[in-house]
Amino acid sequence: MTGIVVAGGRVQPEFLLQILEKEKKQEENLWLLAVDGGLAVLQRAGLCPQEIVGDFDTVSPEVLAYYQGVPDIVWQRHRPEKDATDTELALEEAKRRGCERVLLLGATGGRLDHELSNIQLLNLYADASMKVEILDEKNRITLLAASTEPRRRFCKSEQYGHYISFVPLSEKVRGITLRGFQYPLTDRDITIGSSLCISNELTEEEGSLQFCEGTLLCIESKD
């Protein structure tokens, strides 16, 4: 099952509807989960989630009242004083529900602390128990761990955007080899903070990344 989690960052209703339409063509069994302020986006899009998670400190009373009147929604209410963000709790709920893949929308474009925290959440799923992708209108962000996925294939026909960047998330990433890219590499080590692998591009129909140690953020972007 694929989960679509809509958090309280910047999401246009049209973008959400576009993602839903695309995913429904591939899988009928979708679990739509709203996180706190993400409810407002769903209301503007005319959508009803199966589940709502949050402490509800960033959503208007009017939006809350609207969805409280809708039957069959599962509510996960949390106190504002807690040890995890609403988005983290929503991802854990998606995992508990049996989602093998989650598209996380609304994780970017808002408060910077939340945005960075949401990206760091990808680390929790580095063991590949549940594949999580952060999507917005310009970017797709995934995490690659050498321990579970030491090789990744890239196809021009499947690209989310023109540019592909690899950002080290662990202190060191060892043995990076890139083939089919404008800027190839062979067995290169990089450390956290390096910008060596930013804004690369595929020059062939297929390209590949291989590395032997560490974790990378893969960011596919378009202008």
Helices and strands in order:
Layout: E1 2-6, H1 13-26, E2 30-35, H2 38-45, E3 51-54, H3 61-68, E4 74-77, H4 86-96, E5 101-105, H5 112-120, E6 131-135, E7 139-145, E8 151-155, E9 163-168, E10 172-179, E11 185-191, E12 206-210, E13 215-221
Parallel strand pairs: 1-2, 1-5, 2-3, 3-4, 5-6
Antiparallel strand pairs: 6-7, 7-13, 8-12, 9-13, 10-11, 10-12
Helix pairs in contact: 1-2
Low-confidence stretches: none
Give the helix level as a range of percent: 10-25%
What is the number of beta strands? Answer: 13
Mean pLDDT: 94
Distance between the termini: 31 Å
Order of H and E elements: EHEHEHEHEHEEEEEEEE
Gyration radius, in Å = 18 Å
Tertiary shape: elongated
* Strand arrangement, major sheet: 4-3-2-1-5-6-7-13-9
Please summarize the sheet with the most strands.
Answer: 9 strands, mixed
* Coarse structural class: alpha/beta
Strand content: 25-35%
Number of helices: 5
Structure commentary:
Strand 3 (51-54), helix 3 (61-68) and strand 4 form a beta-alpha-beta unit. This protein has helices at 13-26, 38-45, 61-68, 86-96, 112-120, and strands at 2-6, 30-35, 51-54, 74-77, 101-105, 131-135, 139-145, 151-155, 163-168, 172-179, 185-191, 206-210, 215-221. By secondary structure, it is an alpha/beta fold. The protein has a 9-stranded mixed sheet with strand order 4-3-2-1-5-6-7-13-9, with helices on both faces. It has a 4-stranded antiparallel sheet with strand order 8-12-10-11, with no helix packed on it. The protein starts with a strand and ends with a strand.
